[in-house]
Automatic annotation (TrEMBL):
Protein name: Branched-chain-amino-acid aminotransferase
One Pfam family of this chain: Aminotran_4
Protein family per UniProt: Belongs to the class-IV pyridoxal-phosphate-dependent aminotransferase family.
PROSITE patterns: AA_TRANSFER_CLASS_4
Enzyme Commission identifier(s): 2.6.1.42
Length: 303
């Protein structure tokens, strides 16, 4: 069972989480016409009166852009101010995950985005490790990542997550922890809710935007950190077989942070992961406000 934070933002007000409920006729439930964000909040390790949010501005901008795909004008600053108030109302004492969600709240039928009411809610839940920090095994999914010409993959559109759900369950039911999806061109795209990185000969490689990936904020941060550390970074198409013989492979995401991959199908990855470990340590120090060079990535809320 999840431990939800006690207060949610729903229909323009802060209410007890249990009272934030939608109708069974809600348009978004039927047609997948929602979009969400996902960010972590942690109590400051040195100051329990402060909550740290990693790259809050980027998360709010991405959600605002996702909302535009739904024909909904919701400015990033509005999202940000609701999230800040949400945190103050809940005053969490443990690590948590915030889920802001924009959606067609209309009760009418027929798939469309015009002339339907839209709304926005925020709730949160306690969240520890999403994937095992020791590493995960991955199956190459038989499901393919959708194409940008079929739906706006740069938005976190809720309906698109049917593919992630199919892939994840297929992987887990066949004995793996996670799924890696190829795109329609047969190139590596991403995992069910994470971007994919590999290391070969000291270079960090990750599929580029043209591989139908989500524009991951952790991905973007890792690329910047690696460059600052002097690790060469290449964004380019990746073949499945290249993944199988890589020196290191890891997944990145807000929930997963940096999670090493220990096995892909029947191929075992090395447990010696110098670059993964270096990036992981750096990212974790940054998110905990322990790295002065990246303080502008960490938004602080006094509770
Ligand atoms: N890809 C997908 C499909 C995701 O759902 C996520 C999680 N938001 C990611 C990648 C990673 O994105 P981020 O680093 O912004 O959490």
């Amino acid at each position: 069972m999840h431990n939800f934070l006690p207060v949610a933002y729903f229909e323009g007000k802060f209410v007890p989480f249990e009272e934030a409920n939608i109708s069974i006729a809600t348009h978004a439930l039927h047609y997948g016409t929602g979009a969400f964000g996902g960010l972590r909040g942690i109590p400051h390790p040195q100051n329990s009166g402060q909550i740290l949010l990693f790259r809050l501005d980027r998360h709010c901008q991405r959600l605002s852009k996702s909302a535009r795909f739904l024909n909904f004008d919701l400015p990033a600053d509005k999202i940000q101010s609701v999230i800040v108030d949400f945190i103050k109302k809940n005053a969490p004492t443990v690590s948590f995950y915030i889920r802001p969600f924009v959606y067609t709240s209309d009760l009418g039928i027929a798939p469309r985005l015009h002339k339907v009411e839209k709304d926005f809610f925020v709730y949160g839940l306690e969240l520890g490790d999403y994937l095992s920090p020791e590493g995960v095994s991955c199956r190459i999914s038989s499901w393919y990542r959708q194409e940008d010409r079929s739906l706006p993959l740069r938005g976190k559109i809720s309906g698109a997550y049917i593919t992630s759900s199919l892939a994840k369950t297929e992987a887990v039911e066949s004995g793996f922890d996670e799924a890696i999806l190829m795109n329609s061109q047969g190139k590596v795209s991403e995992a069910s809710g994470m971007n994919v990185f590999l290391v070969r000969d000291g270079r960090l490689i990750t599929p580029g935007f043209e591989q139908d990936i989500l524009e991951g904020i952790t991905r973007d941060s890792i690329i910047a950190i690696a460059k600052d550390l002097g690790i060469p970074v290449v964004e380019r198409p990746v073949d499945k077989t290249e993944l199988l013989i890589a020196d290191e492979v890891f997944l990145s995401g807000t929930a997963a942070k940096i999670t090493p991959v220990r096995q892909i199908e029947s191929y075992h990855c090395s447990t010696h992961r110098p670059i993964t470990d270096r990036l992981r340590d750096k990212l974790s120090a940054i998110t905990e406000d322990a790295d002065a060079n990246y303080r502008d990535w960490v938004f602080k809320v006094d509770i």
